[in-house]
Amino acid sequence: MQDDLRDNPYGAPAAPIEAELPSERLAIENAGRWRRLFGFLIDYAASTLLSALISVPYVMYLYWQGGDAALDALETEQNLLRDYVIGLSATLLYYVTLEGFFGWTIGKLVTGTRVVNEKGGRPSWKQIVGRTLGRFIPFEPFSLLFANDNDKRGWHDSLSKTHVVRRR
Predict the structure, then answer these.
(1) Which of 7, 48, 73, 125 lies 20 to 30 angstroms, CA to CA, from 39?
(2) How many CB atoms lie within 10 A of CB 145?
(3) What is the pLDDT, as a whole number, of residue 17?
(4) In 3-state terms, what secondary structure has residue 90?
(5) In terms of C-beta density within 10 A (0-12 exposed, 13-18 middle, 19 or more buried), how is residue 157 classed?
(6) b/e for 94-110, b at 16 or more Cβ within 10 A?
(7) Cα 47 to the chain's mean position, in Å?
(8) Nearest Cα to 123, choosing from 89, 150, 147, 159?
(9) In this structure, what are the phi and psi dihedrals at residue 28, rounded to the nearest 5 degrees?
(10) Handedness of CA 147, 155, 43, 52 (dihedral sign)
(11) From CA 23, how far away is CA 55, in angstroms rounded?
């Protein structure tokens, strides 16, 4: 009877199942500073473009409400709160959407990098939101310049426990 089970191609596998995953950390090759800087510049341009696109419905609404006088007021009056809200919204939308769903942004796609968690897998949504909020820390882009040479991680990486690694 035992031999019949071993020869049955449709039978259950007889290999032992290990209950624990390997505890060692996967080898992660962090992306270099220059690659990350280039990706940052591309992402900055893309999020600025998104910010401009978000502004279009707002400008159309103002024109519909007040005509040319409202558009003239938009050009002459400075409203920092409005500008910050539009810019922060565009940045949140850009990074959370792209990194959350795909693990990359346009800059990361061009530079051949991707965001991973500390085990080399897909980061959680909580980590992605943390990364994005970490980008709003003043002088955060300079944190990569002063990072440990082995780590090459900015504050938004280390606070969210993520890495930017090379894909190719």
Answers:
(1) 125
(2) 9
(3) 60
(4) helix
(5) buried
(6) bbbebbbeebbbbbbbe
(7) 12
(8) 159
(9) -120, 120
(10) negative
(11) 48
pLDDT at position 18 is 58
Widest pairwise Cα distance in the chain: 91
Find, among 168, 163, 167, 166, the residue nearest to 25 by Cα: 163
Whole-prediction pTM value? 0.75
Q: Which amino acid is at 121?
A: G
Average pLDDT per 10 consecutive residues for the chain, totaling 168 residues: 63 63 55 89 96 87 80 79 90 96 95 91 95 93 77 87 87
DSSP state of 150: T
Q: Look at residue 15 in the predicted model and tell me its pLDDT.
A: 65
At residue 41, φ and ψ (nearest 5 deg) are -65, -40
Query: Which residue bears the tokens 């991973």?
Result: 116
CB distance 126 to 137 below 8 Å: no
- Tell me how long the chain is: 168
Give the N- to C-terminal CA distance of the chain in Å, as an integer: 51
Contact of 127 with 84, CB cutoff 8 Å: no
Triad 83, 86, 88: Cα angle to 5°: 105
DSSP 165: E
Burial class (CB within 10 angstroms; exposed 0-12, middle 13-18, buried 19+) of 136: exposed
